[in-house]
Amino acid sequence: MTPGEIRRLYFIVRTFLSYGLDELIPRIRITLPLRIWRRMLFWMPNRHKDKLLGERLRLALQELGPVWIKFGQMLSTRRDLFPPQIADQLAMLQDRVAPFDGALAKQQIEQAMGGIPVETWFDDFDITPLASASIAQVHTARLKENGREVVIKVIRPDILPIIRADMKLIYRLARWVPRLLPDGRRLRPLEVVREYEKTLIDELNLLRESANAIQLRRNFEDSPMLYVPEVFSDYCSQDMMVMERIYGIPVSDIAMLHKQGTNMKLLAERGVQVFFTQVFRDSFFHADMHPGNIFVSYEHPEDPQYIGIDCGIVGSLNKEDKRYLAENFIAFFNRDYRKVAELHVDSGWVPPDTNVEDFEFAIRTVCEPIFEKPLAEISFGHVLLNLFNTARRFNMEVQPQLVLLQKTLLYVEGLGRQLYPELDLWKTAKPFLEDWIKDQVGIPALIRTLKEKAPFWIEKMPELPELMYDSLRQGKQLQNSVDKITRDLQRNQVRQAQSRYLFGIGATLMISGTLLLINKPEWEFMPAWIMAGGIVTWLIGWRRSA
Q1: Is 405 annotated in some ligand binding site?
Q2: Cβ contact 193:204 at 8 Å
Q3: Is there a domain that residue 215 lies in?
Q4: Which residue range is the domain that position 531 belongs to?
Q5: Total number of domains constituting the chain
């Protein structure tokens, strides 16, 4: 490690210990070395004993910076895994991170606008931020040109070096995983870290987020399920983004949603439907759907509509991954474990020499006890965790392209259970996936393919005779070339056989001449003539082989 990385690692360890987070280490035999090591660091005491554990965890992650804050945001959605006192504190990381100076934000906005004062373009600019997150913060204003209320998002200053330093250290630690864990190579830690780094760096480019928001808005135009605010792209740059200001109820404010008379069951189900629509219909999904980025419209609470913001992280799947994923989900829903095992092999997620029968039995062993519960009580996150542990025996590798999807699905499940604890994720998703599969392989898919390809075929149709003639001519030329190569090869084989025959005769004559010269010296010239004949035969054989 470099001195800088050692300093950063020391800072991380010191931060965790100064907030007393060693309390999170379970008191079991396997953690004994860690607990002994902690006692040796007696000069790093817990300096925040007056605070609860959840608050200490939040403050520590906040102090460590954006990489760790993002991790805390993901944990905050899993209220089924953490007690309320921890989940409530982590939820504050979603939009209540300590802001930076508003005057500095104004200066950055003016710099992004080419040095022109904010008042030239905006009225009522509020120097106090409306919200502050790990990567950026937002300020409210009003556009001069049309009087529309907007929010201005600006990147935190000097954040890139912090992210780079943390990711560099994480990369170095990831390289040790295959050496420290027996199946560490299967986890593909470097690929996972690389994917996580990419999503963080992408968030720093607000032009990318603007484009993502415009795309997502177009995908759900006039949809009753999701509304995406309008982006004013003329005012956007890499470090600044301007978009429509929205008013809604934070999705985490359950009390306010109930007071509003919101249909909580429909709201939870629509969250699942929005996710699967983005993944399977659009191949473009919002991959940062934590509660800080999701609101519910005040209008028509009986027919609730989500409002989505912060599209800095999006994900997509290729056609093959979507197909395998959908069929895997349906097979799980139907308890067809043989199909699940075969799909894992076909997709390449496990090695091709995997014993399908053994893999099927292992999956069945994990899933059957889970399905004994009512479907509404089954946590998809727990199913994934159990399958992940089971797959170690079958060398299943982590799929980096699915990491964002898995994280987003955990967000959606955590959010849905928070809104409506009786949410049946399986029942909500299964009809959607079955319809999607039918649409991909049935008559509609064939008609759609014909429509898509028809213009290309019509364009190429006049060229078909010429293409057929060229193809036949090239086939004839290829056949002639193959025949010529075959004839040359046969001639070479005959010449090589003749050459070996002559070498054999030459060797025989040489040996015979040498023996006669030794045993019959009185024959004078006879051995010499025989040896000369052997040399001549060799020369002829050499020329035949050339």
Answers
A1: no
A2: no
A3: no
A4: 477-545
A5: 3
